[in-house]
Amino acid sequence: MNYRPELVTLMQKCMIFTFSGEKVDSSLFADGDDVPLSSLSIDSLAAMQFCIELEAHFGWSVTPEELLAFETVGDIARALDAHVSR
To answer: What's the number of CA atoms in the CB half-sphere (13 Å) around residue 78?
Structure first.
């Protein structure tokens, strides 16, 4: 199943503003699964909120450190698919 659209929606919800207080540019999510997480400037608060949302929506418990170890949005989507498929 393709979880990318739901993941992007959750990410945008958690990352309304970056650590610097600037609004996140939603066009960063338009390039597909290969969006590097490093380009999103995810701060620790946004990562924690995203982990909470992942557990609430999908029952997938992941730590912020584990989340930030993924290189791209597509990597997260594939890991989520593997979790849900169990």
So the answer is: 8
How far is CA 44 from its chain centroid? Answer: 12
Query: What CATH number has the domain spanning 4-12+32-84?
Result: 1.10.1200.10
The pTM score is 0.76
- What are the residue boundaries of the structural domains of the chain, listed by start? 4-12+32-84
* Res 61 pLDDT > 90: yes
Kindly tell me the sign of the dihedral angle through the C-alpha atoms of 46, 41, 20, 22: negative
User: Got the DSSP string for 37-53?
Assistant: GGGGT--HHHHHHHHHH
Torsion, CA 36, CA 3, CA 6, CA 8, rounded to 10: 10
Query: If we measure between CA atoms, which residue out of 39, 36, 47, 41 comes closest to residue 10?
Result: 47
Report the pLDDT value the prediction gives residue 38, as an integer from 0 to 100.
Answer: 81
